[in-house]
Amino acid sequence: MIVIVMGVTGAGKTTVGRALAGALGWEFHDGDELHSEESKRKMHRGIALDDVDRAPWLGAIRKLIEGMLTEGRNGVVACSALKQSYRDEIVVDPKSVKIVYLKGSKEVIAERLRGRTGHFMNPDLLPSQIDTIEEPRDAIVVDISGAPEAIVSEIRSRLGI
Q1: How far is residue 38's CA from residue 25's CA, in Å, rounded to a whole number?
Q2: 31 with 77: CB under 8 angstroms?
């Protein structure tokens, strides 16, 4: 099984994704690492990516997921996956790839971003991500206000793992 942990910047995708993978003994992949250097520079400068910018990134995530499924590897992938069309691209097998949407208020996420350091994503992009996100149709929706351990426990319970 592959679990895609999605949400806007600052929702906790990497923190929760790593913790979930660790709790399950699964591999973890951060989708941010698959962005091109040019895309990272754009986001750092506060320029939102468009669909053309995201296409190679989504292709790389899809290839990663296909490889994991082909090789029978379980894993967690942290990825914003803001639009339904992006999720349609990367959910190569709905029976084996599950979406977890980390959802929280703009205020909670903005507060988290104020305390975050060392990430290429410019916090000024939060409004554009909130404007862009299309809430998923077929996902486990988890409130991010709890501690990461509680969020992981809820995800595990709702996935039945």
Answers
A1: 33
A2: yes
Identify the CATH class of 2-159: alpha beta
Angle at 117 between CA 133 and CA 47, to 5 degrees: 45
pTM: 0.89
Residue-wise pLDDT tens digits, 26-45 = 999 999 889 888 988 887 78
H/E segment holding residue 75: strand 75-78
Categorise residue 89: left if φ over 0, alpha if ψ from -120 to 50, beta otherwise: alpha
Strand order in the sheet with 2-6: 27-30, 75-78, 2-6, 97-103, 140-143
CB 67 within 8 A of CB 27: no
Over residues 84-92, mean pLDDT: 96
Alpha-carbon torsion (103, 29, 98, 121), positive or negative: positive
* Bridge partners for 103 per DSSP: 143
